[in-house]
Amino acid sequence: MSGVETVEKPRRNVELLLLLLAFAVSIGANTMKGLQDGTAFGSDFWLQEALLAGPALAIHAVLRFRAKYADPLILPIVVTLNGLGLAMIHRLDTPQTDYGNTQARWTVVGMVLAIAVVWFLRDHRILRRFTYISLIVSAVLLLLPLVPGITAGEINGAQVWIRVAGSTFQPGEVAKITIAVFFAGYLSTNRDLILLAGRRIGKLQLPRFKDLGPMVVAWLAAIGILIFQHDLGMSILFFGIFISTIYIATSRVSWAILGVLLMFAGAMAASLALPHIRLRIDGWLNAFSPDVYGRTSGSSYQIVQGLFGMANGGLLGTGLGQGRPDLVPFSHSDMIVASFGEELGLVGLFAIVLLYAMLVTRGFRAALGARDSFGKLLASALSAAVGLQVFVIIGGVTRLIPLTGLTTPFLAAGGSSLLANWIIVALLLVISNAARRPVAQGPLMADGGPRHTEPAQPGDTMTTQAVSTR
Q1: CA distances from 356 to 80, 263, 350, 414, 427 (A)
Q2: SS3 for 439?
Q3: 457 within 8 A of 372, measured Cβ to Cβ
Q4: Mean pLDDT highest for which of 288-297, 326-335, 421-430?
Q5: Considering only CA atoms, which of 376, 261, 184 is closest in space to residue 253?
Q6: Among 26-40, 51-65, 291-305, 420-434, whose mean pLDDT is lowest?
Q7: DSSP 3-state assignment of 216?
């Protein structure tokens, strides 16, 4: 009906019910692990569950006051994944390591940051003011691992870490958020300029050469990460975010095709010029070759052991706590997908992939419902970042593509990845709240709406106008 919008229900009670189900999944996973090592239902067992449930319920409470129209499925999905990850990391701990407790602490910090984002970021459109500042911050974050004095040096073939207060941190994980803000802000403002007609080749409408600037800059940045930091995964992720965002902004297949061609050209050049990348690609193509499997540098031992482990799990898995994922190097981080594949089987692994698919889908649904072009592109870019990261790491573990050093969001051990992904979740919750909230005039409402209507920005396809909901 003209002038009337469908009034969405807050559905916070649905979110609470699904959170209880997520806690049940986490408790069940920890119980299966605890029954194998005799730690089930002890004080440490309940402390681990409290460190997950307490902050998660706090986020839920904040959403009730600040963003009551936020998507009710996003938080339970993420808590389920985080809980499964904590259970597996604790299961893989040894007397010499403390990965599980470290991950639990990072989980609490990540959730606290998510609470802060939801509480203080009342309107996601505020981030649009920092479009070019986000670009500068992204550049600084990506250069930090190369700065003498704070760099952690080369770890596992990549130089992407810095040392902070005795711990290591990967600034690139935060940079994927700031670069998404830049892409969304730039493309929402300059969409009409980019859409100007260029040369047509067959059915493809190619952009004008002078409009290729952002894509060339993104391509050079991705190649720079590959050359100077030897980080194939982050390079693919950054350029993939840009390709997906510009395709959503323009709806032109020509941009996507051009972006993919540039990405393949860069990868081919890197494989020829950089020994580290060449060995990794060779290990992917010839993983079962005895020479490649047993060599000292660039061995395929890790990927082959992961494949053997998943084959051992079969359809239903060996059972949580009853497999031998510890035989795979970095089974708690880079190869945690193989660990789940062995102990939960193909069925369990498919369930995890479906959770990720639902998370990405809900992010894109928030993008579809956003009333401003910046919100649409930001939610799309953040959702694409999560989806691309999952595809790159699972594709590497299953030997679909070369193995990279990315971490599986919320599952794998890694504090910087956990912090960044919880911030992404908070931003998606804020955008989904704005998308589902009834639009009304007046001062700030209890649902966390903005106190004022921001003026229309260039490139906005739909601004927040006062529309009666009755």
Answers
A1: 11, 25, 10, 18, 17
A2: coil
A3: yes
A4: 421-430
A5: 261
A6: 26-40
A7: helix
* Higher local confidence (pLDDT), 163 or 288: 288
Q: How far apart are CA 224 and CA 231, in angstroms?
A: 10
Does residue 187 surpass a pLDDT of 60? yes
pLDDT of residue 333: 87
Go through the chain and tell me how many residues it has: 470
Q: Is 282 helix (H, G, I), strand (E, B) or coil?
A: helix
CA distance readout (Å), 1 to 5, 69, 463: 8, 22, 19
The two tokens of residue 27 are: 């408790």
Per-residue 3-state assignment (H helix, E strand, C coil) for 356-398: HHHHHHHHHHHHHHCCCHHHHHHHHHHHHHHHHHHHHHHHHHC
**What are the φ and ψ backbone dihedral angles of 252, each rounded to 5 degrees?**
-110, 120
Q: What is the Cα–Cα distance from 4 to 185, expressed in whole angstroms?
A: 29
Query: SS3 of 162, please?
Result: strand
Distances (CA, A) of 210 to 196, 204, 233: 11, 18, 29
Question: CB neighbours (10 Å) of residue 366?
Answer: 30
Which of 33 and 329 is assigned the larger pLDDT? 329
CA distance 425 to 389: 14
pTM for this prediction: 0.88
Average pLDDT, stretch 329-348?
A: 92
- The yes-or-no verdict on residue 47 having pLDDT over 80 is yes
